[in-house]
Design goal:
- It is a single chain.
- The longest helix is centred in the last third of the chain and has 16 residues.
- The strands form two sheets. A six-stranded mixed beta sheet has the order 6-7-8-3-9-10, sandwiched between helices.
- By secondary structure, it is α/β, with parallel strands linked by helices.
- The radius of gyration is 17 Å and the shape is globular.
- It is built from ten helices and ten strands.
Length: 232
Amino acid sequence: MLRVAELSAGYGGFQALFDASLEVNAGEAVAVIGPNGAGKTTLLRVISKLISPSAGDVTFEGRSLAAVAPHDVVARGIAHVPENRRLFPRLTAEENLRMGAYTSRRTYAERLAQVYALFPRLRERRHQPAGTLSGGEQQMCAIARALMSGPKLLLLDEPSAGLAPVVVQSIFELVRRICAEGYTVLIVEQNIRQVLKVVSRAYLLEAGRIVRSGSADELRTAPEIQKAYLGL
């Protein structure tokens, strides 16, 4: 479904990605893991066309995204949940969900029912301003807003960032449920221990370069990853 080929990108004079390549097949849950500053967020921002690469290409369902505008990326079926959620704080939770459905207004009621089935807490909080929700509830709202567009591919940027440990567990359980629903998911995450429990494959990104890839089990048991990232 998604192919990233020899991608290089950065900001101003700083290069954050170097010849990065990866693939995500339909129905897969794939992680990009690595330390803070490795280029993970930059990778997702290039895929969703928020920044342009300096080299390489991104193809989605066999078609290049090189000339596609960011809003058309959403229309093609890619939904991006950014780091720190970026909700509209003065709008209610349900109004934020409505904003996520602007490309699929005809199916709004159906998608809202599906989202509330997946996120029953949001139904309870639907009339509450998003800025007053707890951190975990805000993350749920951000993910639900992305799902309202009916995406073929869901991009998740550090969904556990800034959350209490007990909330992190519930967020990853939620990601597991989303994957079980059949969504194709590409998730970037620093919490390597948890994310490798919910994906089938992963890529290790260090200093802007993909240095290793394999099944989640292969990466979880690799001695260098256990030592550097899992504290074993």
